Amino acid sequence: MSSDKTLAWDYCEDYVVEDDVLLRARERAAQYGCHAIAPGAGAVLRLLAATLRARTAVEVGTGTGVASLWLLRGMDADGVLTTIDPEAENQRAAKAAFAEDGIRPERARTINGRPRDVLPRLADAAYDLVLVGSDSPSAADHVEQALRLLRPGGVLVLDEALWRGRVADPARRDEATTMVREIGRSLREDPRVLPAMIPSGDGLLLAVRR
Fold first, then answer.
1. Cα distance between residue 67 and residue 29, in whole Å
2. Residues 157/208, Cβ–Cβ less than 8 Å
3. Which of 200, 160, 201, 202 is nearest to 183 (CA)?
4. Secondary structure of 75-132 as H, E, C letters
5. Would you call 4 exposed, middle or buried from its count of C-beta atoms within 10 A (0-12, 13-18, 19+)?
6. pLDDT tens profile 49-63
7. Per the CB 3.0–4.6 Å rule, which of 49, 96, 147, 203 could disulfide with 74?
8. pTM for this predicted structure
């Protein structure tokens, strides 16, 4: 990539500046060893939530609430985010970020548990947006559950869809890269969705449910 393109890429990623609430949530993510969505990708999440006028959304992996904040800021004022994480400590940090941002408690439904146990209990075709991370061995199962949860016209977002830049390199055949690459191929060929890849952050794979 040329230096001009790299500069342009950096400009895009920093185009929407994070405020102190987001920055503190991001700092806590680093302290806790959690993945935090990149600022540019977070801005895309907010835009998607606002475009959909999302009232219901699901997030697989709360972390310390960075992506949650972006989503909640884009959703309708009465929209509810259901966010799932097996680590109670992470969710306590996320709740602190929500309170700091003035988000009413009833707008963030935090569920402490393993996504593979929680997702099957959520209602079919009841959600406007579902965010799934690629940093789980069960990511493919989470994507399949997400497609069940989405209403027609709802959007699936797969974060880290380029997996640290490795997915685009055919020589990379480690297990994690192969899994993420296969999820992308599967969604590209799935007649239930219309997909697109956005190279923001570490890649966002978007798919709208037909």
1. 11
2. no
3. 160
4. CCCCCEEEEEECCHHHHHHHHHHHHHCCCCHHHEEEEECCHHHHHHHCCCCCEEEEEE
5. exposed
6. 999 999 999 999 999
7. 49
8. 0.96
